Amino acid sequence: MQTDILVVGGGLGGVAAALGALRAGRSVIMSEEYDWIGGQLTSQAVPPDEHSWVEHFGVTRSYRQLRNGIRQYYRDHFPLTEASRAWGDLNPGAGWVSRVCAEPRVGLAVLEAMLMPYRGGGKLKVLQPYRPVAADVEGDSVRTVTLRHRDTEAEITVSATYVVDATELGDLLPLTRTEYAIGFESRSDTDEPNAPEHAQPENVQAVSICFAIDHVDGDQTIDKPENYDFWRSYEPSFWGGPLLGFKAPHPRTLETTTRSFTPNPDDDPLLVDADQRKGGGDENLWTFRRIAARRNFVPGAYQSDICLVNWPMIDYMEGSILDVSEEKKARHLRAAAELSYCVFYWLQTEAPRVDGGQGFKGLRLRGDITGTEHGLAMAPYIRESRRIKPVTRIVEQDLSYAVRGEKGAVNYRDSIGVGMYRIDLHPSTGGDNYIDVPSCPFEIPLGALLPQRVKNLLPAGKNIGTTHITNGCYRLHPVEWNVGEVAGMLAAHCLNKGLTPHQVQENDVHLANFQSQISREGIEIRWPDVHAY
Description:
7-stranded mixed β-sheet, 27% helix, globular, 4-stranded antiparallel β-sheet, alpha+beta
């Protein structure tokens, strides 16, 4: 097969890259290894992690269309109460982590709708479920990528002028021999205040396999997982208690704190204030990432709230899945899934209740919500990827509030987007505790999307030129979307203008023209006067 632009990976960055290229009139083939496009929003089942000004500024126009589309889908198709239907900033799940906590199938429906006109018009072909297994490289350019069907093992080789790596783990980087980094860089390399003395390539953020639950009448208890006793006694040195428990380090203070868990509290969803400046919101684990608040819907429509479990206790820290054998990667992912089942079984049988009892037997896995028969999310939640060695590497001192203070983050000459989130690193495979420190509202430099050597490969997700530390704030939903959208637009721009991405970044006139173009398409490249939190 042949196309102008090949997008490998159909997560948020991949979908945004496809849209950016398609709007510019280019043909696109997009592949995705799972049954759902949408990545962390859908197959990984994680509600969007966003900054506090998201309703007003700081995201791209098309990302705002996605958010508004999710809300409108609920208004069009769900039995909302009159008050919830009239709620301008409708939060279907009334979760504290995000202003748009929603069921993953709704995000999937909206993403599919955004792509639909291009499928019908023949400009976009989506290959599912396919993953990359080989690439043909000539000099500093990628010529073809070979994709293999997950179930049949049939292979398709695609040639393209530009290739966008939107995979969750940066899978094209080793296949194309593009230089990249993994794990924790050393302080001598990056000068970052929180970096270790020596590089730790195997030290990456924990993988988590999320799941959705509700609480209904009757005994829903699953069979005891095979290795439950191992995980029941598992206790990281810095945790303050067993991993399977409501005690865990507070991400910002590292003090041991105890979370609460109260299924189906009789709270008013319209009073939930999902503002991350006021705290993480995870004190009550049920409402933290709730994706369906039953009181948003007419009585009887939902038997229970639906809670998305992406909590500290499901973080799998026993090993990295980057640059290991396929067998070892599969073994780690099986163990991560087993940990999630063990957490669920512990909740059903041993979790302390406020009435003094143990266990919530009415908890039920909602695999129908996550699109699986096994009951967990379709795909693992990936926080950290391989990262290109870029023209511009984003380091902690570019945006850390402790370093930059009221000056704010570095202004990049070649900014192609903005983002904001705390530097939020989960416990890692190297035995590190949380690193969760204030960040300044930051920009995304075009140079972070350009490999130093390879000319026609562009990253579109967590594989941009961050470090282990700065990945902690560049990895979230709206930034991934912005990165992907610009990668697709850049590839199309270069095809239309006869330029290379490096020429656009290096030349002031070419750069200004591209920045003007993306600004017209609704990409914000500078922040208004806002402050760190």
